[in-house]
Design goal:
About 5% of the residues lie in helices and about 45% in strands. The chain is mainly beta. A five-stranded antiparallel beta sheet has the order 8-7-4-1-9, with no helix packed on it. A four-stranded antiparallel beta sheet has the order 10-39-38-37, with no helix packed on it. It has a four-stranded antiparallel beta sheet with strand order 11-12-13-14, with no helix packed on it. The longest helix has 23 residues. The termini are far apart.
Length: about 400
């Protein structure tokens, strides 16, 4: 009798352990939306399995309403993805393998693009627009190219400070009359700044207190504080770069710091292993002490190279698409767009979210609920987009590595 009960108890424990394990590994509730077919012809099945009965077919370019997602991923033809339940005509439903679908919808023909190339030998990275027809773009060679006539003619600039030429340019940003550049390299790296459109430059390096001359990101706070993320940690400046103070990172960070955003006293840090938010005791966000807590540890586990916030929302560019969070609840993040590596994010005065990825340029007009995707078939010379700028006439400019500069008018 005792043996019988012990077997029952062991079985019950095993069942509870399995249920508890499944709960731990469960994901956020699936959010319904629209999806686009990328395969020439794709079968729709009655269950989420390749062995299911075919109940219909869809074709490349078809846009379908998704109503559910399988709990587990499957592998088909070397692709690993979920199955998605979609609405079919006449009230029917069926399941489609996600390896041949995309959430990056091209719902309209939209913008048509042109390309200019200031130098075919350069790999273009950062870009800004100081005035309506003025564009400045940088390269991994440490050169700048500027145009004053909307891209018809270009002038090469070689930034210099104290005899040093700038190193590989990673990013260019503007604030008021200052243009800031972050770069890398032992002599040409660090933070560079000009107040006269490039006529003269100041360079800030470890001599001024930076932890390293290899800079990954820069954030210009509205309170006058400049934040930079270096390969050796975070630093701040309260005097426009003349001196820097290392910001001591407390426990909890995993991976190498790559990007940063500061919202009031809240600090959000993207690393090579995810996304982290500074949390004090009692789960109160903010302050200079406390620990860093990993946000969305199941959804965001690798490189977060870009962060951007506006109007109560913050967006994070990951290796697997764009994530979004409300700034009042920075522990809850949701993947809202694409599956491509995000390199840069910009929100312009028209509230367009513009995202540069390794596989196209994505634009949303509704805070990320739906997207228009632009690629080579729309006039871009490359699908690999590095950075974004918007000029005073609301025209979008992008850098495309050696493929040059893309823009619409």
């Amino acid at each position: 009798m005792h043996r019988f009960y012990s077997i029952k108890y062991i079985a019950l424990i095993l069942i509870l352990a399995f249920v508890f394990s499944q709960a731990l590994h469960s994901e956020e509730p699936f959010s319904q939306g629209k999806i686009k077919v990328t395969a020439s012809v794709l079968n729709v099945r009655n269950i989420s399995s390749q062995g299911g009965t075919v109940v219909g077919t869809v074709r490349r370019g078809d846009i379908l309403q998704v109503i559910d997602k399988s709990p587990q991923e499957s592998e088909i033809d070397g692709l690993t993805n979920y199955w998605y339940k979609v609405a079919m005509p006449k009230g029917k439903t069926g399941w489609i393998f996600g390896g041949y679908l995309t959430f990056e919808l091209n719902l309209e023909s939209g913008l048509r693009w042109r390309t200019v190339n200031p130098s075919s030998s350069e790999n273009f990275t950062g870009i800004v627009s100081p005035t309506p027809k003025s564009i400045i773009t940088g390269s991994t060679s440490g050169n700048l190219y500027s145009t004053l006539d909307g891209g018809n003619s270009w002038k090469k600039i070689v930034p210099q400070a104290l005899g040093n030429n700038i190193g590989p340019i990673k990013k260019i940003v503007m604030q008021k009359n200052f243009i800031w550049i972050i770069s890398s390299g032992e002599t040409g790296g660090g933070v560079w700044k000009t107040a006269n459109n490039g006529a003269s430059w100041s360079q800030y390096t470890t001599v001024q207190g930076l932890p390293s001359n290899d800079i990954n990101d820069i954030f210009l706070g509205s309170d006058g504080i400049t934040w930079v993320v270096t390969s050796a940690g975070i630093a701040t400046s309260s005097n426009n770069g003349l001196s820097w103070k290392k910001y001591e990172i407390s426990r909890g960070i995993k991976g190498d710091p790559l990007s940063i955003s500061v919202i009031g006293k809240n600090i959000i840090l993207g690393t090579s292993k995810g996304l982290f938010v500074l949390v004090q005791e009692g789960n109160i966000l903010g302050g200079s002490k406390g620990k860093w807590v990993q946000a969305a540890p199941k959804q965001i586990t690798s490189n977060v190279e870009s962060l951007y916030h506006m109007d109560g929302m913050i967006y994070a560019g990951t290796d697997k698409g764009l994530a979004r969070s409300d700034t009042s609840s920075l522990q809850e993040w949701f993947i809202i767009g694409g599956s491509s590596k995000v390199r840069s994010i910009l929100i312009d005065k028209k509230k367009r979210i513009i995202v540069a990825t390794k596989n196209g340029l994505n634009i949303s007009l509704d805070r990320g609920d739906s997207w228009v995707t632009y690629k080579k078939e729309h006039g871009l010379s490359s699908n690999s987009i590095n950075d974004i700028a918007v000029d005073a006439n609301d025209n979008i400019w992008v850098t495309m590595e050696k493929s040059g500069i893309g823009f619409h008018d």
